[in-house]
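subagent[fold] <- orchestrator: predict structure for attached chain, return tokens only, no commentary.
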Amino acid sequence: MGSSPHSVKRWQLSGTDYEQVRSTRSDTRSDTRLSCWTPLNNQSSNLQLFEERMTLVLHWFDLWTDRQRKHLLHSLLTRGTKSQLKYCRDLLMETLPVTQVDFTAVLPRFLSLYVMSFLSPRDLCSAAQVSWHWRMLSEQDCLWASRCITRGWFLPYTPAEKEYGAWKNHYVSCVSTSTGSLHGRQPSSMGPLTNKAH
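subagent[fold] -> orchestrator:
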């Protein structure tokens, strides 16, 4: 014996824009109606009911405040499966394409440092002013030690274990006091090589 569809009382539909569907069947009960959420065996009828409910939900959504809309979106996303969340991600990436990405946020640390190793000393000092994270990367000793050593500017002391930016500070100090040229250009024509982030 097959189970009968779930039903709801008329009073349960009060306060909604549910329009009672009049049936031409003589045996239709007057006090109950099939629930609009109950899957039907008839595929076309089921699709029609789904579209009607979607229209109703979207109508409510248009009337809600921004906070209410975000609450609904949060509830839906937390209930979604991985495949559904991936669909949302792809849809968002298509709707809101990311045209600019901070490479230091997506690349491993050693690759970010490798990219920065191609920057000039002046560009490294400029990069240090972008953000705290960029400053931390652009002042790493691995970027400045070789630049100092190749010019004979050896650090006169051994940096402490947690000392930060020792070779970079030493490089800036040597450039400021040196009367020679830097990369074949006079320091006076390049302006001061400083880092305003300090």
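orchestrator: received. Logging for downstream: The chain is about 50% helix and 5% strand. Residues 43-63 form the longest helix (21 residues).
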